[in-house]
Amino acid sequence: MTNQTPESDKREINPFLKSALDFGPILVFFVAYLLLKDHIFTIGGTEYDGFIIVTAAFIPLLIASTGALWFLTGKVSRMQVATLVLVVIFGGLSVWLNDDRFFKMKPTMIYLLFGGMLGFGLLRGASYLKYVMEGMMPLQDTGWMILTRRLMLFFFGLAILNEVIWRTQSTEIWVYFKTFGLSIAVFGFFMSQSKLFQTYGIEDAKGSDTSDG
Questions:
Q1: Which of 77, 177, 202, 204 is 20 to 30 A off residue 162, Cα-Cα?
Q2: How many whole angstroms separate alpha carbon 37 and alpha carbon 55?
């Protein structure tokens, strides 16, 4: 018996649909912000700027897209669940208190949480990253530990960077950073680890064992 989802419950869907569910909400948020950023809305006697209105719409949209992803594929990663929970909490606080600072702090909390979890695993001599990503890129245990340590530091760095950006720059610059900057940074990080993947990839290790024989 295992706690993993049975293979029969995991369903493949069109990759374009999956990408739309994964990245669609943040792109909708970005476009909606550009359209509404200069508008003020009066609701129940309280004035809300466009950022707060877009944040209020983003929360149910992300819930719906995550729910659709789970319904169609039969699985949702722990990282997606954690992200959704923090969006609901910090986005909800921004809307409730009419204060955009809470939603801007959300990426900081996400990266501190992920970095902290990886760090906790490292203190226990384990790579929690391996449990999440092993199926996507099989590595030797040494490789997982190195990658986990690097990713932990990277996440802490992103948390600090997000704090610097939202505290010192305009909301519009932060939205661009949140929509594109963070995604590019994560992509760049994994691209920069190509040497590690080559060195500790299980397929490479097996290939060298075969050639030695």
A1: 77
A2: 11
